[in-house]
Structures are given as structure tokens and as C-alpha cells.
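Milestone M4 deliverable, item 7.
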Amino acid sequence: MEKKRFIFGDNVIVAECKYGENAYQSPAALLSAGTGDSLGLDKFFLMSGMPLSYNNYCDLDRLLQTMTHVAATFDLNRGMVPYIALGAKHGNACGAGIHDNDKLETIKKMVIGDLQALFGGLVMLNFAVDVDEAELLLTYKTASRRLLDGVIAPWFSPEAVALLKRKGDKCRFISNNALLDLNRNSLDQEFIFRHVRGGYLSQPNYTYILHLENEDLKMYGTADEAEEDDLLLAKAICDTSNSNTITIVKDGQLLGNGVGQQSRVAGAELALSIAKKNGHDVFRAVAASDSFFPFTDGPAALIKKGIQTIVSTSGSINDQKVIDICQSHGVVLYLVSDSKGRGFYNH
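Output delivered:
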């Protein structure tokens, strides 16, 4: 049987993958559109390890969405970008940490977000990896070597690579210096295309960033600065995860990311369950919802476990009931219009 060939127009094959999502989906490759974007996937360099798979590239792209949204959010609201560490499985953050000046604490927060989910996942950092950082990625809070599919960072020392390497070169080390300079202008501005049978769907990219000084933001109660930092992190993670999503953050750490649920209350229950499974205390934590609450059951589930601040969108016929239940329990609620601030669907 003749092997299928690529039809890629003027695009350039950057890397051929062994196969696509599954072994029977072949051939597969990363193609470059030649945009010159310093954060384009064609600008990421494989320093060591086996070639990236199709799924690795998909996860890399999703990690980059979350990383740039976190960076842009803090640059816009705080005038600085913290150290950021993200761990992802199937494109969704399962661990995340930020810190103003401590790389190691940032990694610790990320690693213990969901220890089980991080197994075999990808990690992205906006800072260089040397021996100390590698040691934490490898051994922090685990009795044996942590298995990762890959680590993405601006730079790796040879010693860090040697420490993190897996048998068969199964851990990929992927570098891009542009990760050092992320800011509010780092979001992907290109149109999104998706193949559908018989053609393509196209839409503008998702570039909304929550701005605490925006007049469209309605605040019912006031969070302190630390709580608002958690709110900013939760919103950026939530908006770039698969809908329906509820994201719980406390002290600059992702505690639970309840993604891909078919009801919003199920997303809340899943996020709470993940946090509990990993021994996290959600009392006075922040929760983000990527769209409005259609009923009060979602907020009620979060409030019952001690969530103190919620950020969501408005647009439900039950908005006032959601406002009322939060106010009756002394829970701070920040609302932005769903038409402007709704997160990715990622259908």
C-alpha cells in the first residue's frame, strides 16, 4: 500500500512525528507557517531526549497558552511577571506555582499540586533549570524518581539534564530563551483554525486578560492583595483549561483544577475532590469559574468547603441568586461579563 503523503501547501515540515495521537495515525508532523513568532512551536529546541510526539506538541502548545496568560495577567495587573511553574496532563494544568523571587518554592508548589496526575506529564518553567531545580522536579515529595515526559524551560545546565534523564531518553528537554521575557504582549494573536469534515473552522484567538481596574469588573466585597493575586492566577489557569472548569488556588499554588465537566457544579466538586486527595486545605482559598454559574449549586459546594473568594462571569438568569448566596456567607465575588471574559471552550 502506498504511504500517505502530507498536503501542506507552503508550510514547512519542522519535525516529523513517529505517528499522530495513535499509532495508526501516520504520517504526522509539526509544520511551520513561518510567522517568525519567537514563541512559535517551531522555535522550541530539543536539547536532549527522544523526538517529540504529536501529543507532546499538543501539550506544549496548551502549556504555552496557560503560561502566557499567567504572565500577561500579572504584567497587566502588577507590572511584573513572577516565576511560574506549570505541570500539565492532557493539556490541562494539574500543578502550578508562582513566586516573586524564589524559583525553588515555585517548583515545590507546582509539584505537589496533584502528585498523581503529574506522573508522565510535561512541565514548563519561565526560568532556567540547574541542578537544584532539577533535583526538586525529580525527587520532591516522592519516594522514587518522578517520571516526566518532558521539561520545557529557557535553558538547562548539562548537569540538570544528566540528573533528569530517563532510560531510553524518554524525558525530552525543550528550550526557548523567549520564555525568559514573557509579558502582556506574549499572547498568541493569530487566528485559530480547526479542520472539520469538508473544510475548516476559523476564529480569533483567545486574548482576554482579567484587569482588576476594568470598569466592567463588578466586585461584591473586596479581596486583599494576596487574595487578588490568587484570583488572577486562578482565572488564567481556568480560562485556558477545558470547559467546564472550576479552578482552586491558594497562596500562589494550584490546589485543584476541575476540568472538562458537563455541569459546572461537577467541576466544583471535582476541583474540591482533587484538592482533598492531595491533602490541600481549601479554607479561605480562591475559586475561578470559566463561565457563569447557571444555578447556585456550584457556589454552594465551594462555600461549604470554605472558599472565601470567587471570580466568575455574569450572564445567567440566576446571577442575582449567585450574588445573594455569596454575600449571605461573606464570600467575595468578582464578576466580568461572559461576552468578554469567558474562557476557552477547547471543544
